[in-house]
Fold this sequence. Notes:
The protein is mostly beta strands. Helices cover 12% and strands 36% of the residues. The protein is globular. The model has no long low-confidence stretch (mean pLDDT 94).
Amino acid sequence: MEKGKVSNMKSCLQPTPKVLVSCRGLDGEDNVLAVAYCCNCSYDPPMVMVGIVPTRYSYHMIKESGCFVVNLVEKNYKETFEYLGKHSKRDENKLEVMNVKLVDGKKVNAPILPDCPVNIECKVVDSIVTGSHEMFVGKIEYVHADKKLIDTEGNIDFSQIDFL
């Protein structure tokens, strides 16, 4: 197979699931942002990593609170995902505009999005600046999943999720 040179290298590792990261500031303010860079980074202990640009409104909330939640997004949440990704809470209360439901996490002081099928509560254990983003490494403290997705051994059946 003949190969050609790819000129746009910004996001050449695709596909990845669309995720919304929810967080809470020390003042109790909640926010949600779309995050392009998110991945597993350890299985023992279980950890994930999210990349946040320091100019984003949520960046300081996560940096100061030391926690966040990764919410996996289904196709039926596309309109909300796109709106949250294109608008900043710095300019408007985008959560109110889109009527985003939030529920307190069980282990970390950040909200989960109950309309998303999987919510991964994380405590920041490290971070590294990689250029445009700071990669926050989060130790997974608790995972919520729709009951219909959980098999008899407690695993998530990801094949049942209609990912965005």
